[in-house]
Amino acid sequence: MTPPFEYAAEHRERFVRQLSDWLRIPSISTDLAFKNEILRAAHWLADDMRRIGLENVALLETGGHPVVYGDWLHAGPDKPTVLIYGHYDVQPAVMEDGWTNPPFEPVIRDDKLIARGASDDKGQVMIQMKAIESLLATGTCPVNVKYLIEGEEESGSTNLTRFINDHKALLKADLCLISDTGIRSADQPVIVYGLRGILSMELIVTGPKRDLHSGAGGNIHNPAQAICEMVAQLHHPDGSVNVRGFYDRVNTLSDQERVLLNRADDTDAEWEAYMGDLPVWGEPGYSRVERRGARPTLEINGLASGYAGEGFKTVLPARAIAKISCRLVPDQDPKEIFELVKARIAELTPPTVRVELKMLDYGYPAITPVDHPATQAAVRAYAAHFPNEPLYARGGGSIPVVADFQNLLGLPVVLLGFALPDSGAHGPDENFSLTMFARGIDTVITYFDEVASLTA
Amino acid sequence: MTPPFEYAAEHRERFVRQLSDWLRIPSISTDLAFKNEILRAAHWLADDMRRIGLENVALLETGGHPVVYGDWLHAGPDKPTVLIYGHYDVQPAVMEDGWTNPPFEPVIRDDKLIARGASDDKGQVMIQMKAIESLLATGTCPVNVKYLIEGEEESGSTNLTRFINDHKALLKADLCLISDTGIRSADQPVIVYGLRGILSMELIVTGPKRDLHSGAGGNIHNPAQAICEMVAQLHHPDGSVNVRGFYDRVNTLSDQERVLLNRADDTDAEWEAYMGDLPVWGEPGYSRVERRGARPTLEINGLASGYAGEGFKTVLPARAIAKISCRLVPDQDPKEIFELVKARIAELTPPTVRVELKMLDYGYPAITPVDHPATQAAVRAYAAHFPNEPLYARGGGSIPVVADFQNLLGLPVVLLGFALPDSGAHGPDENFSLTMFARGIDTVITYFDEVASLTA
Asked: CA A424, CA A118: separation in Å to the nearest integer?
């Protein structure tokens, strides 16, 4: 073992203790009542950055919760600069959600460190911190590094796009590295080289000026019925999206990419674990894994109208709401897709109700080609520390900031994630495998070495 | 003025005070927390019954909230017996629903007594009580009367059908009189001679075993989408119900009945008051008033799936619910209609989701012909105290107990209602017109006279 790996192995227990200390701070970004905890968590991180030798460490104002920044730029001007992104804020968590232990009192059970934020994302940020610590404490780092750890990821990274735009010089780099995703199993890493964009919308259908007694029914186009009639026509019977132009800008999958992607398809057992014996549904002509990562979707995320609680109320509802989102793939543009959906909704609107479609939020899709040197460096780094070569996947979810790094800073983005499928992110008993924590630190150390050999 | 009318006029303020006292008791039947208030309201009524000279007054056990019973049977065996039905329970009410005054602290504003239950149904029960009081206090009553005032109307009269079945001898009568409906305006009474039946159902569509992150979308037939696709096919594009056999047992309207009914159609101004400029919708070939009272419907009363609150959640919902009800007309049978809807749902169920249709409740439609002597007596009673002759209407709503009185006791049922269209039943600022309260008492006194002249 070379010195940085030795150092990481020797200090492993301390690393876990430090992570536990950080996890004790309930840095919930979605609730202003936790503003002080957010600041405590940011200062905790900044202190650790200073202690391990990062420079220019500062809490930078964003308009919301601060960004924690630190860098080390002494690898030399001919060496690449890696911009590392992560977040120190966490999802809310209360015992009532089903935790077996208070969410902000970390405990270790078997190989798992259980606490809110353990895997999403404090544990993975700590991997990045402890990798650079291990390098600097035993000599030097082969690449220049800049850390941008934000405090608003769980509340939509509201201020980050503007922050990136305002700090282009500070954030100048050759590639962006993010540890905020998962792998397939402890033995099977996955390179997530693409993420879908998102467009979220609200469809509001109104009829009578107020809820009526349903005994009045017979003359009124019930908004709950009308919204169903409209929503039902947003897909073709075959499962493809029935919005004119929706697929126009979707990049075609090459045969090579399809082969790569399909190596990582769900097993039937995985499918059954969450779907039971229900058959697969979806756009014809594509496999499960293609539909989930490389094809766009239109989903209904919520419906509400009238009374739907226990029992029954004789209400003819005045309004009905559907929350609708599209997951988008390169080169779809969320703003353009919104206009297409809006046009389709207009087409479907009967004269007997009033209809409004609102855009709620959006984020662009992102992709770093599998043959990009920064991606291939990640493949080699994973391969060095895991029993199996990594698989390739395109993530079905969205991390809108990834597209910002690509589009605003022109950086390839590499997702080097270490969370296991049972890490419970956003749910009760969130946890992080201590084996993955250690293996992650080693993988990042190797990744920096692999990147150093690339042309800056 | 004859003595009973004089008595009613003289004691009017006291009648209103008594009604107000009764309205102060929040006898909410849908919430067990109010069980004591229900009992207080029942005892209050029983005490008033005894005070005014009714006999055999008792709170009768039903298995749920008690029925308040009282009678006066001294008109003679050759005189008809009128069974009077009403209810002393009320809908829930809280300030947050938009009340301008605490709902259980009655106030008088202009001509209105404002409180939960003012028109539905305590105010109208008090009309019945004060009519018999005015008669007995000034002499005698020309008919025999039996009062059956229940405490579970707002929670579906759950126990009343069995209670009626178990007390056929006690409830033996010649006709049933109910004041629990409305009229068209202060000057325009309406004879509601028919009521629709009801069948309420819950449609549950499930997919994944638990809610998934919507980033997983693409392979799963989203239950929120599937329920929309199914619900959308429960009507034909023309607005008629798309359930095989649904209309098979519907009685044809005679030309004479259509003429009578259409005299009481909405004015355009009335339509616009609650629908604005939206056009009328519904089954082709029928007028507004026919569709609302004499034709059956299928309505969506509630929808729920995923997250539909403020903002957006990236959820692919595991289940979706629709509350669905049919309003039924003679001779549709709710149990048979349930089977027809179930068969249609089975037809519409795709293989990619799980679907369940549950019956929640039902009640039979009811009708008393317009030329029935008991109906014509009501026409004359209204005409005696209102500026205009009554119109004829079939109610769109359902009072399932009406069908029970018809079917179990073999009684013609007369609805002698006095609530104005703006009485706000089930809504905020429910109120009862004091003019209608007084006019109602007079009308009932006259009705008893009219009925006395019919053959027992």
From this structure: 9
B177 and B30 housed in the same domain = yes
Distance from CA of B223 to the nearest CA of A (A): 8
What pTM does this model have? Answer: 0.88
Asked if A370 and A354 sit in the same domain, the reply is no
Residue A142, chain B, CB below 8 Å: the answer is no
Q: Do the Cβ atoms of A221 and B281 come within 8 Å?
A: yes
CATH number of the domain enclosing A351: 3.30.70.360
Q: What digits encode the pLDDT tens for the residues B327-336?
A: 999 999 999 9
Inside any domain, residue A134: yes
Residue in chain B nearest A240 by alpha carbon: B218
Considering only CA atoms, which of A284, A292, A241, A285 is closest in space to residue A266? Answer: A292
Beta strands A112-114; A107-109: pairing state = antiparallel
Indicate if B176 and B206 belong to the same structural domain.
no
The answer to whether residue B455 scores a pLDDT higher than 80 is: no
Q: What is the ipTM of this complex?
A: 0.89
| Partner residue opposite B304 with nearest CB, options A295, A308, A325 | A308
Which residues in B lie closer than 8 A to residue A352 (C-beta atoms)?
278-279, 281
Evaluate if residue B456 carries a pLDDT over 70: no
pLDDT digits (tens, 9 = 90+) for A59-74: 999 999 999 999 999 9
**Which of these three, B313, B343, B363, is where a domain ends?**
B363
Pair A4, A385: CB distance under 8 Å? no
Cβ of B323 within 8 Å of Cβ of A312? The answer is yes
Q: A219–B312: do the CB atoms touch at under 8 Å?
A: no
Where chain A has pLDDT below 50, the residues are: 456
> What pLDDT, on the 0 to 100 scale, is given for residue A107?
98
What is the per-residue pLDDT for A455? 65
Per-residue model confidence (pLDDT) at position B270: 87
Residue A426 pLDDT: 85
Cβ-Cβ contacts under 8 Å, B233 against chain A: 232
3-state helix/strand/coil string of A350-406: CCCCEEEEEEEEEECCEECCCCCHHHHHHHHHHHHHCCCCCEEEEECCCCHHHHHHH
Picking from B178, B151, B180, B128, the residue whose alpha carbon sits closest to that of residue B8 is B128
Burial string for A266-292 (b: 16+ CB within 10 Å, else e) reads beeeebeebbeebebbbbeebbbbbbb
What does the pLDDT read at residue A349? 98
Residues spanned by the domain of B302: 197-250+296-363
DSSP alpha helix (H) spans, B167-244:
223-231
Interface of A with B in 160-219 (CB under 8 A): 196, 198, 200, 202, 207-210, 212-219
User: Where does B207-312 show beta strands of DSSP type E?
Assistant: 212-213, 297-306
Which residue from A minimizes the CA distance to B353? A278
Please count the other Cβ atoms lying within 10 Å of the Cβ belonging to residue A11: 17
**How is residue B185 annotated by DSSP?**
B
B105: Cβ contacts below 8 Å, ≥ 6 apart: B24, B115
Question: Which long-range CB contacts under 8 A does B356-361 form with residues at least 24 apart?
Answer: B356/B203, B356/B204, B356/B206, B357/B201, B357/B202, B357/B203, B357/B204, B358/B201, B358/B202, B358/B204, B359/B199, B359/B200, B359/B201, B360/A311, B360/A312, B360/B200, B360/B201, B360/B202, B360/B323, B361/A312, B361/B156, B361/B198, B361/B199, B361/B200
Phi and psi (nearest 5°) for A57?
-70, 130
Tell whether B323 lies on the interface with A, counting CB pairs under 8 A: yes
Chain B residues with CB-CB distance to A229 below 8 A: 228, 231-232
B113-124 pLDDT, tens digit per residue, is 999 999 999 999
Angle formed at CA B416 by CA B104 and CA B5, multiple of 5 degrees: 85
What is the domain count for chain B?
Answer: 2
